[in-house]
Amino acid sequence: MRILAIGDVCGSIGCEYVRKVLPSLKKEKQIDMVIINGENSADGNGITPKSADYLQMLGADVLTGGNHSLRRAEIYEYLDNNDFVLRPHNLSEAQNGKGYCLVDFGNVQVAVINLSGKIYLERLNASCPFAVADELIEKAKNDGAKIIVVDFHAEATSEKRALGLYLDGKVSAFFGTHTHVQTADEQILENGTGYITDLGMTGPIDSVLGVKKEIIINRLKANDMSKFELANGECMLNGCIFDIDNKTGKTQAIERIYIDRNK
User: What's the pTM value of the predicted model, to 2 decimals?
Assistant: First the structure.
């Protein structure tokens, strides 16, 4: 099973770049499953039924989320009714949606787990990701999943690294999202878990994490609290491919993906 995980898609410009790049990437890399973090896929921020439907139409088997998953009220009922659009499961105060799904490919079942970090994300009041991961992994095994994939939406690299190492051998693949900056540490851990600290983002290159650079510079330099606006221009797609053995559930190969007009 070759699974492509795509980093945080930023607004309609990011969605359109997925439309441009994904079909050929799936064909070239012989991808069997696509997981996309779509928590910022709506213009402004958050995710809406429209942006979720669009990414699924483009080929996403599962959409994962993060701290903006519940920002838009119109997504609440959608999350309750769509098994394959997730939000972090350990958001203890969330009343809509869930962070676990099972995708049946016939010859193998893949469980996807979506969790939130706690460090620097205190306002989310997330429960312990380690404990919730253990609970959901047990559920996945009881459901018959041979492959288990985790999207850990977290700010601190230390927290991502710690949870990744804790889950080594318990899950097939572990990737971080949220920072919008791709890390260059893709690896297969000691007990067979494919790991990368952060996938990065899919959206405008000439930006600060997808936002117009002038807005962020003025905020940091002059305390100008102007509303965030998505940048325009050339885009990139960040992600990672995990080549996983269907029988053992272990990652056999891993490849970091960075695509822009020059690559």
Answer: 0.96
